[in-house]
Design brief:
Helix content is about 20%, strand content about 40%. It is of the alpha+beta class and about 200 residues long. It has a single domain, classed as 3-Layer(aba) Sandwich (Protein Transport Mog1p, Chain A). About 35% of the residues are buried.
């Protein structure tokens, strides 16, 4: 079955609505990602991930401005997009901005959950919400009920935004692999960074 959603719409919209608040004119980052032996390497973000068998890199879903990576599940039913968002906000504050803009950015926005998560010693924020994607297929309007989950990982002067998007009926099925991937985050930067909440 081919992927029927366009996760780029979700994260691109958040980029447009939030980045101006940071006062940063971000330059497009060159995508440099690969998988070898189950290890995903992202040279732009200086980190690695452990990915389950069958997951693959997908440059076609990388957000045009701030995207640094993209992965697609073996069944083509879920995409994982990775952005590096320039900001001095901690993840909790950034999640609040996403939530505040949600109803104006995502049709049918409905917050489902917000929680905290420790990833490699970094205090992260997790935001999950439902929304409706509207698109045209052969001239006819089609609506898809989607769920997005953001894991916001602090980095120096930026936040890594890991986003899972899946159709609502399949979200619970796809989420364990997403969480496994995110929790395997390992920085390869010369100086590792960890930010605790203020």
């Amino acid at each position: 079955m081919q992927m029927r959603i366009s996760p780029r719409i979700a994260i691109a919209a958040i980029t447009i609505s939030l980045c101006f608040q940071a006062g940063v004119n971000a330059q497009k980052t060159i995508v440099d990602q690969s998988i070898s032996g189950g290890v995903y390497k992202n040279s732009a973000g200086h980190f690695t991930l452990t990915v389950p068998e069958g997951w693959r890199t997908n440059d076609d879903i990388v957000e045009p401005k701030l995207g640094i990576g993209g992965l697609t599940s073996p069944d083509n039913e879920a995409n994982l997009e990775i952005q590096q968002m320039p900001t001095e906000d901690i993840p909790a504050a950034f999640a609040k901005k996403i939530d505040a803009k949600g109803s104006s950015v995502f049709p049918g926005y409905r917050k489902l959950d917000e929680s905290k998560l420790d990833v490699a010693g970094r205090n992260c924020e997790v935001l999950t919400f439902a929304w409706v994607q509207e698109r045209q297929v052969a001239g006819a309007p089609v609506k898809s009920n989607l769920v997005s989950r953001f894991v916001l990982i602090p980095n120096e002067h930026s936040i890594f935004a890991f986003q899972l998007v899946a159709r609502e009926p399949l979200f619970d099925k796809e989420m364990p692999a997403f969480e496994q991937i995110v929790k395997s985050f390992h920085s390869t930067a010369q100086e590792d960074f960890s930010r605790k909440p203020k």
